[in-house]
Amino acid sequence: MQDIDLLLHGRWVIPVEPDEQVLEHHCIAVNDGRILALLPSARAAQHYRAETELHLDHHALIPGLINAHTHTPMNLLRGLADDLPMMEWLHEHIWPAEQRWVNEEFVHDGGLLAMAEMLRGGITCFNDMYFFPEVTARAAAHLGMRACVGLIAIDFPTVYAGDADEYLAKGLALHDSYRNDPLIRTAFAPHAPYSVSDAPLQRIQTLADELDIPVHMHVHETADEVGQGLQQNGERPLARLDRLGLLSPALVGVHMTQLDDDEIARLAETGSHVVHCPESNLKLASGFCPAARLVAAGVNVALGTDGAASNNDLDLFSEMRTAALLGKAVSNDATALPAHTVLRMATLNGARALGLGAETGSLETGKWADITAVDLATLESQPVYHPVSQLVYAAGRHQVSDVWVAGRHLLKDRVLTGLDSDELLDNAARWQAHLAEP
Ligand SMILES: CSC[C@H]1O[C@@H](n2cnc3c(O)ncnc32)[C@H](O)[C@@H]1O
Ligand SMILES: [Zn+2]
Question: Where does the record place the Amidohydrolase-related domain (predicted)?
């Protein structure tokens, strides 16, 4: 008999690895923040005495969802500039608003609002790209949420830094201060091929090799981006990145709506990762990522929401559903991107893209106990023939009841244990009033 911290019994436990496994009436034993074992509930009492034991009799226990691309502080820009094409949205609305309003307090308040939204939607880990990433890192660490924060770089001066040297110096200092942190990781985050020139990109790749961290970047988001790249450099942006040495297992390329067969083969050959953000791509009419073809070619495809200014929510349940439906429509094949595949994209594939495949993303012995409980007893979820189909095609984030990160109970029966919701609402209202100023 072993004394442990936590025993979670679920009607269904869906570990994601092994693929397509659904365990009925099983439990997850947790100690020191990590998963000790998955076993039938009926056998648990023979092995474990838990300080806390929870029976989630109508729930599916799944790995915490991983939002592989977002800009958390942009929650404060939600709904500010809607119904616009991507480049006009970015250049004429978002970048001017950011220059005027973004500071450390904005990043703190917007970041926490986003983390609250994500936890309530079953997301335990996010990959962020935004100004003042040290503020986001501190807030996530304090809250107990897992994050990979972007060490950003862009060719022009912003509220955060003046030139490439300053972006990189700030980024490296941030990387150093979280070197051994159990929750916070870093990735280089050069904004996009059209906004970062060759010299900083090459430096970033050298540093990423040295530090063994990912390079997170918007790539081939729109046809315009590819056309402009061709005009300016005589080559497509992805070919330029390849020539500069950026296609590698470190690359986390976001969007990738414009890909020909050779480019897909090259992404597979180099072990590059792709983050599919279907709803942001739909809303900005950016194009369609050939996610099913990428998966078939062996590319690791994860899922992201992008920021709340282009989505307009951070909801990976709806993102899974959209990815599955769009995947079928785009490939004219109803068997494309089945439910199990998109659940894997929203969990283990995200972890792998961030270099966290051994730490989180599936319910396996030795991994962190990053767990989401989804209540499938609701009227809208009946009957449950296939729990994974229910999760992807019928369930919503409001059915997430509980969330644990490294064994810590951060969402308890839909209540955030580490955040004051009234304070989050007050802060959002205060920023809304500021941003409405002429
Ligand atoms: C350098 S910090 C990140 C930067 O990215 C901007 N951004 C947000 N969403 C998108 C997108 O879909 N494509 C390109 N850039 C985007 C954000 O506003 C920040 O300025
Ligand atoms: Zn983005």
Answer: 61-408
